[in-house]
Amino acid sequence: MSKTEKKFILAIDHGTGGPKSAIVSTHGEVLEWAFQEVPLHVFKGGGVEQNPDDWWNAILKTSKKVIDSGHVPVEDIVGICNSSQWSGTVPVDKDRNHLMNAIIWMDTRGAPYARNIHKGLLKFSGYNIKKALSWVKRAGGAPTLSGKDPIAHILWIKHEQPDIYEKTFNFLEPQDYINLKLTGKFASSYTTIGIHWLTDIRDINNVKYSKKLLKMAQLDKSKLPSDFVNSTDILGTITNEVANSLGLDKNTKVIAGAPDVPTAAIGSGAVRDYETHIYIGTSDWVICHIPYKKMDMFHNIGSIISGIPGRYMIINEQEIAGGNLSFLRDKILYHKDELLKEEAVPDVYKIFDRIVESIPAGSNNLIFTPWLIGERCPVDDHTIRGGLYNISLEMSREHLIRAIFEGVAYNVKWAYIYVEKLIKKFIKRERREKDIFTPDVNIIGGGAQSNVWCQIFADVLNRKIKQVKDPIQANARGAAFIASVGLGYINWDDIPKYTQISNIYTPNPENREIYDKLFIEYLNIYKTMRKTYKRLNKD
Q1: pLDDT at 431
Q2: Residues 475-503, mean pLDDT to the nearest whole number
Q3: Cα–Cα distance between 452 and 222 in angstroms, integer?
Q4: Is residue 504 within 8 Å of residue 47, measured between CB atoms?
């Protein structure tokens, strides 16, 4: 039975840009939130790191700020639930100290070791077919060649930083590291550990490390988390140090939670089987929950245990979406070195929206490819790069900006096609609607705040796009929902009714022909240019 008293969750949305802490009701209403940016350290050769101390200090600062805002009585905050960036690695010693910066999901230094895992004679697109099938059969996916998976991170440390490897007690995901800081407990959820591709998830009620996969990865099980919990399980209470820092009751419960992708899936409101959502933030993804383990290894679409216990979800990610707009803002239009200190960068995203609205669909046949840091899905190709194609003197910056919006939408459609093909294998024939299996798609993330972008997605995907209210708060709301279910305040079936939709965008039939034509050419650009990119960027 659901509890009816009004209580609140301290929800932590720990993204790559920095953590956001929020006070959220057990029914998903976000009352207050605060964000603090943390530095990103990028090194030649594919290194991308962050300092876990920066994470933790920012979490404490933003949490303290929202708690002290006075929106709710402290005694009504009944739980804490964190949702961190995924596919990262923090080496930690027995005394709970991190031994180096965290290697995050963008890091590719482990690529040579990832490729070594897949060595062998019978290959497809760089993957050893026999090994890949073993991985997919057990784990629902396989380590990619990009080196961005935790397996590759750990192998890089093992070979390049052997002293740190030897001192490491546990290699933790960012999700598990923050939970360690909150409770003092080493643990991982079935969902969180899934992206290591080392657990056998065929029996969802008996998930465990696979000896075969550990052997193929050449990793030591003793250096990985040994305690698994459900996302809704109460991991423990906060430490005295955290209680004193935040002014919370020492009995405040910490719910295990899940990383950003599965948490956002819950916060999107699309929690029933086959209901699909897209996320547009720095990166993007297309995700839905499914009743069985199913994947497409040829297009880098895996299957993991959902943040909803007892369920699976289709998992995929594309590297850069809204990050293309950040690149345009920070590296081209408003480079920080060229600004006077007293000058403030305007809200360029609203300016971008107005510009995009002024240009007809198709940007005069200008096509942008958003692959600034390679791609994962539906192709695992870390050498491809962004570009503008068919630019001419008759164009202006307005065409360029709209082309960026449209290029991200083409890329999402590229992944969406293969996600929907997987869904088709589940849905019974009587549910078909003119071969459209997912007629409505929820949209969340910072990019979902743009009305014109939502319309572009509707036109390019030829689907109704449902703009979730406060889409940038999907992770915080999802973390609160997980905690609310774990504490007994709501049930999973309650989530859709607590998820408000701001607008519904329907495809404009007048744009169908131009977007279908340009999408075909978008795919042709990859087919034509991939070898050139490989020659240019193979090192």
Answers
A1: 54
A2: 96
A3: 50
A4: no
pLDDT of residue 334: 75
Domain range for 156 is 8-257
β-strand partners of 374:
372
Sequential DSSP letters for 220-242: -GGGS---EE-TTSEEEE--HHH
Tokens of 318: 């594309």
| Secondary structure letter of residue 69 according to DSSP | T
Tell me the pLDDT tens digit for each residue of 90-123: 999 999 999 999 999 989 999 999 999 988 877 7
> H or E element: which one contains 414?
helix 397-424
With a cut of 90, say whether residue 433 has pLDDT above it: no
CATH number at residue 104: 3.30.420.40
Contact by Cβ (8 Å): 192, 259: yes
Q: What is the DSSP letter of 445?
A: S
CA–CA dist 218, 155 (Å, integer): 8
Residue 87 pLDDT > 80, yes or no? Answer: yes
Is 191 a member of any domain?
yes
Number of domains in the chain: 1
- In the block, tokens 């960036």 appear at 85
Which residues, 6 or more positions from 229, have their beta carbon under 8 angstroms from its beta carbon?
A: 187, 188, 189, 190, 235, 256
- Match 């239009």 to its residue by tokens: 333
Q: Measured in whole angstroms, how far is the alpha carbon of residue 128 from the centre of its chain?
A: 27
Asked whether residue 49 is domain-assigned, the answer is yes
What are the strands, taking DSSP E only, across 306-413?
312-315, 367-369, 387-389
Q: How far is CA 440 from the centre of its chain?
A: 21
Q: What is the pLDDT of residue 422?
A: 87
| pTM of the model as a whole | 0.89
